[in-house]
Amino acid sequence: MGLALELTGLSKAYGPTKALQDVSFNVVEGQTHAIIGENGAGKSTLIRALAGLERPDRGSIRIQGRAYAPRNLKDSRRAGVSTAFQDLSLLPNLTVAENLFLPRLGRGLLVKRKDNEAAAREVLDKYRVGHISPNRTVDGLALADKQKLEIVRAISHQPKILLLDEPSAALPDVEWLYSLLADIRSSDLTILYISHRLAEIRDLCQTATVLRNGEVVDTVRVDEADDSRVFQMMGGATEGHGTEARQVRGVTGEPAIEVRNLSGQSIKDVNFTLQQGELLGVAALEGQGQGETFRILAGALKPAGGQVYVDDEAVTLNSTSAALRRGISFVAEERKTEGIFPGLSTLGNVTAGALRKVDRFGFLGGRREFASSVDVAREVDLNERYLRMDIDALSGGNQQKAVLARSLLQGSKYLLLYDPSRGVDVGTKGTIYGLMERFVNRGDHAVLWYSTDLAELSAVCDRILCFYRGSVVQELAGTDISVEALLAAITGHAGAEREAKA
Question: What percent of the chain stands above pLDDT 70?
Answer without folding.
Answer: 87
